[in-house]
């Protein structure tokens, strides 16, 4: 799980300091909201072609870690 979490970045100068995917301007919450709305990983990857499958898994791992605290 640690390698997945390395894909999550937090930069105070980007997206208001919210967690993003690999320094891109795609917030973790954006990916989570798409999944919650019923989109599949494949649909998200088609919509954001610069994301990788591991990025979606990283967003889920990040959310799980945050909820466990």
Query: What is the count of distinct domains?
Result: 1
Q: Rg to the nearest angstrom? A: 11 Å
How big a fraction of the residues is strand?
Answer: 5-15%
Considering DSSP H and I runs of 4 or more, what fraction of the residues is helical? Answer: 40-55%
Q: So, the CATH homologous superfamily? A: Winged helix-like DNA-binding domain superfamily/Winged helix DNA-binding domain
What's the overall average pLDDT, rounded? 95
Q: Quote the CATH topology.
A: Arc Repressor Mutant, subunit A
Shape: globular
Q: What is the element layout, followed by pairings?
A:
Layout: H1 2-5, E1 8-10, E2 19-21, H2 28-36, H3 41-47, H4 53-67
Could you please describe the fold and organization of this structure?
Strand 1 and strand 2 form a beta hairpin. The chain has a two-stranded antiparallel sheet. Helix 2 crosses helix 4 (53-67). The chain has helices at 2-5, 28-36, 41-47, 53-67, and strands at residues 8-10, 19-21. The longest helix is centred in the C-terminal third of the chain and has 15 residues, at 53-67. The chain is mainly alpha-helical. It has one domain (2-67): Winged helix-like DNA-binding domain superfamily/Winged helix DNA-binding domain (Arc Repressor Mutant, subunit A), CATH 1.10.10.10. Helix content is 51%, strand content 9%. The model has no long low-confidence stretch (mean pLDDT 95).
List its traits.
about 70 residues; two-stranded antiparallel sheet; about 50% helix; Arc Repressor Mutant, subunit A
Task: Summarize it.
The chain is mostly helical and 69 residues long. The protein has 4 helices and 2 strands, in the order αββααα. It has one domain (2-67): Arc Repressor Mutant, subunit A (Orthogonal Bundle), CATH 1.10.10.
């Amino acid at each position: 799980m640690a390698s997945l979490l390395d894909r999550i970045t937090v930069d105070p100068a980007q997206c208001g300091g919210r967690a993003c995917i690999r320094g891109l301007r795609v917030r973790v919450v954006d990916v989570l909201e798409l999944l919650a709305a019923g989109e599949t990983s494949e649909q998200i990857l088609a919509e954001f072609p610069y994301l990788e499958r591991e990025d979606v898994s990283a967003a889920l791992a990040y959310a799980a870690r945050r909820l466990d605290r």
